[in-house]
């Protein structure tokens, strides 16, 4: 009998090695994603932290700490560590890291997926003052002395030094190592997630008249917004910085869904585009 199917095509060896995933961390989403990937043999993940906070909560997978050294440094890391996919799960205000990730992934030919939680939007009873950046937030406080809660992290505090007439309540993850650049300041050291009842008690105790926050989105830090609404306190809401276009999903669950499809579609030549 004639074989009219031609010579047999050698079948490709199955892709048995797990997909190396770099998770750019610093958010609750990054930690949750790491936990899920740790339990899945299809993935071999590593989390990267900037190292801004003193007490790192170790994720369920290996982690590294510190900057990569700009775009070129990240390209080198992606190649050296044989990364097959980057998930940008940084905080929505970590614009430099996210911008570098877009450029480095393009240069290294590595697919990139970002988890970007939806921004907060005002609801009934909210008194929000929408501002484009921190400088505008300082202006929004006005000339008259006010009692202001700053829930913005440590790095943005120097901007408020040019408005020393206000009394500030500042919430930080770590105790400050040096004096803050604000003459009238009280510091609360606490790490989220926060509860609306305790945030309300904190704002009431300080006699807070205005709240300044970044539009981080998510549930870990929205308690202060509920508390401000209940106390009829104005909120200066700093808009998110812009980041170059990239594939984005809003939740860890959707990221896992994309990753599973991606891992299933792997070929020896590379990964299908996200
Ligand atoms: P950024 O301004 O976007 O980044 C500045 C530089 O820090 C980057 O160019 C990079 O250095 C390094 N870096 C940032 N994130 C990194 C990461 N995950 N792994 C390794 N290096 C990283 O960032 P940022 O706003 O200072 O935030 C720093 C970290 O804190 C981020 O991981 C972010 O998720 C987290 N965080 C930020 C905020 C916020 O409001 N900005 C709030 C909560 C948590 P090289 O150029 O040397 O690579």
Automatic annotation (TrEMBL):
Keywords from the named record: Cobalamin biosynthesis, Oxidoreductase
Annotated pathway: Cofactor biosynthesis; adenosylcobalamin biosynthesis
Entry keyword Membrane: no
A Gene Ontology molecular function term of the record: precorrin-6A reductase activity
Recorded superkingdom: Bacteria
GO biological process assignments: cobalamin biosynthetic process
Pfam families: CbiJ
Protein name as annotated: Precorrin-6A reductase
